[in-house]
Amino acid sequence: MTTLYEVSQQRDQGEGRPYNPQTDGGLAALRRAAYKARKRAIALDGYVATWRDGKIVYDTEP
Known about the structure:
The chain is an alpha+beta fold. About 50% of the residues lie in helices and about 15% in strands. It contains two helices and two strands, in the order ααββ. The protein has helices at about 5-15, 25-45, and strands at about 50, 55-60. The protein is elongated, with a radius of gyration of 18 Å.
């Protein structure tokens, strides 16, 4: 089993910054939340309005 210290040491070498469990993984969490929100909105309304290429597009799939 890998310890938190070992993961921290691996991240220090590769990225030049220490492992921080409070901030790392935040982007992945935001993506999961956005996916769930889009899925819920599509289930309730049938579409999600999205701004794409200067136009409003009504997406029907998450």
